[in-house]
From TrEMBL:
Lineage: Bacteria, Pseudomonadati, Planctomycetota, Planctomycetia, Gemmatales
Name of the protein described by the UniProt record: Uncharacterized protein
C-alpha cells in the first residue's frame, strides 16, 4: 500500500455523510469542488529544469540533514489532502459515488497528475482505477473450463484469487515439489501467455505473463470489453497474505456464466487468432468441475 489512509486523515474530523436516498447526487457538488482543487494544485507543480532526479546522499549524516529540512517544509497541498480525506468515506462506502467520480470529466486525470506529489491524491487515483462492476472472464485453458465473474469493490489480484476459490469451482493445481502431497493452487496469467495449441506454458516458462497477488486488479487486460485472465497450475505457491489496497471497501462477486468446453474453445480460438482443439490435451491436469 503506497500510503496509510490514516496518515493524512489524522486531525481531520469524521465527515457525516448526508442521509439521502442518492449518495451520488449528494456527493456531486463536493466532487466538482475537489476536481477544481486538483486541477489548481496540478498547475502549481514546477517541472525540473534539467529533469534532475530527486536528491539523495549516500552519506547517512547528510541524508538525515536533507530529510530534516524536507520535513520542515510546509505542506503545499494540505487543503487538497483535507478535501480528498473528506470524500474518501463516501467513495469507499458507495459504488454509486465511485461511478460518478469516474464519470466526471477531468477528475481521474487530475488525480493521476497529482498522485506522485501527494499521498492522498495517490489514494484517490488508485481508487478511481478499481474496476468496479466489470466482468472477468476466467479460463483454465488446459482443462477447457471457465467462468464469467461479475466483481465489485476488489482492488487487487490477491482478492480475485480468493473470490475464485469461493466460486465453488476447482481450478488446476499441482502437487508440491516437496512430495508431501500438498497443493500449490493455481497461477493467474495474462492472455498473452496462451500457447498456439491453446494451452499454458509449464513451469517457469511464461513467467513474464504471470499476474502477481500484489498487483492491482486493473493490471488484467481487457479483451473485447471484458477483463480476461487465464489460470493454470502454479509453479510456486501464490503469496495471498497481501493487505487489501482498500480494506474499508466491500467486495462482492457473482458467477454469471459457467462456460462449457465448446465455449472455452471459442474463447481460446479468439485469443490465439486461429482454431484450437475442443478437447483438452492428453497430458493436461484433471478437468476442473463444478462443486
Amino acid at each position: 500500500m503506497s500510503a496509510n489512509l490514516s496518515d493524512y486523515r489524522a486531525g481531520v474530523p469524521p465527515v457525516a455523510l448526508p442521509d439521502t436516498g442518492d449518495p451520488a447526487f449528494a456527493a456531486r457538488p463536493r466532487l466538482l469542488v475537489l476536481r477544481e482543487a486538483l486541477i489548481r494544485a496540478a498547475k502549481q507543480l514546477r517541472p525540473a529544469r534539467w529533469n534532475e532526479p530527486a536528491v539523495f546522499f549516500f552519506d547517512a549524516k547528510r541524508q538525515a540533514e536533507l530529510e530534516a529540512v524536507r520535513s520542515a517544509e510546509p505542506d503545499r497541498f494540505a487543503e487538497l489532502t483535507a478535501l480528498i480525506a473528506a470524500e474518501l468515506p463516501a467513495l469507499l462506502a458507495h459504488v454509486e459515488v465511485r461511478r460518478l467520480a469516474r464519470a466526471l470529466d477531468g477528475l481521474k486525470a487530475a488525480a493521476l497528475a497529482m498522485a506522485p506529489h501527494a499521498a492522498a491524491a495517490n489514494d484517490l487515483a488508485d481508487l478511481l482505477t478499481v474496476p468496479d462492476d466489470e466482468v472477468f472472464l476466467v479460463v483454465a485453458p488446459n482443462e477447457r473450463t471457465g467462468v464469467r465473474l461479475h466483481v465489485r469493490g476488489a482492488a487487487g489480484i490477491a482478492q480475485l484469487h480468493r473470490l475464485l476459490a469461493e466460486t465453488g469451482l476447482t481450478y488446476p493445481s499441482t502437487p508440491s515439489l516437496k512430495g508431501r502431497g500438498e497443493k500449490l493452487g493455481f497461477q493467474m496469467f495474462k492472455p498473452a501467455a496462451l500457447l498456439p495449441d491453446g494451452t499454458l506454458p509449464v513451469g517457469l516458462a511464461g513467467c513474464e505473463h504471470w499476474l502477481w497477488p500484489t498487483q492491482a486488479l486493473a493490471a488484467i487486460p481487457r479483451v473485447a470489453g471484458e477483463r480476461v485472465v487465464l489460470v493454470g497450475p502454479a509453479t510456486v505457491r501464490p503469496a495471498l497474505d497481501v493487505e487489501p489496497r482498500f480494506p474499508e471497501m466491500s467486495v462482492e462477486s457473482e458467477v454469471i456464466q459457467t462456460l462449457n468446453p465448446f465455449q472455452v474453445t471459442d474463447v481460446l480460438s479468439r485469443l490465439s487468432g486461429h482454431p484450437v482443439p475442443v478437447t483438452a490435451p492428453a497430458n493436461a491436469t484433471a478437468v476442473a468441475r463444478a462443486a
